[in-house]
Specification:
Helix content is about 35%, strand content about 15%. The chain is α+β, with helices and mostly antiparallel strands.
C-alpha cells in the first residue's frame, strides 16, 4: 500500500491496482476500514479517537487472501492498521515497517 496526501478540494480515496485477485467483499472492507480511520470516526469513545481527520489517497498494490482464514472484518481491521502505520511514519519521520497481527501488512521501502 502507498499513501499520498489528497488535495484540499478532494476527498479521501482508496484505489486498487488493476488485476488484484481478491474477493470484492474483502477489498470493500479494506477500503471501509481505511476510510473510517482517515476520517477519525472509527472509535465511538471521543477520548480514544486518534486525532483530526486526514486527507489522503491510499493505493493498494497487493492483496492476498487465505481460502479459510480471510473474512471481511479482518480486512476492515487491516485498513485501519495501515492508516495508523502511515500516520505513525509521518509523525515519527521513519520508513514504514510491517504491521504484524494474526495477519500481516507488508511495505516495500
Amino acid at each position: 500500500m502507498d499513501f499520498e496526501p489528497a488535495a484540499a478540494d478532494e476527498s479521501c480515496s482508496v484505489e486498487f491496482m488493476p488485476g488484484l485477485c481478491a474477493d470484492q467483499e474483502f477489498v470493500t472492507a479494506l477500503a471501509e476500514g481505511a476510510l473510517i480511520e482517515l476520517a477519525a470516526a472509527g472509535v465511538h469513545d471521543p477520548n480514544r479517537r486518534r486525532g483530526d481527520p486526514v486527507l489522503a489517497r491510499m493505493v493498494v498494490r497487493v492483496v492476498q487472501q487465505h481460502e479459510v482464514d480471510s473474512c471481511a472484518s479482518v480486512y476492515r481491521g487491516l485498513g485501519v492498521l495501515a492508516v495508523r502505520e502511515m500516520l505513525d511514519c509521518v509523525a515519527e519521520e521513519r520508513v514504514p515497517r510491517p504491521v504484524v497481527t494474526r495477519v500481516a501488512i507488508g511495505y516495500r521501502p
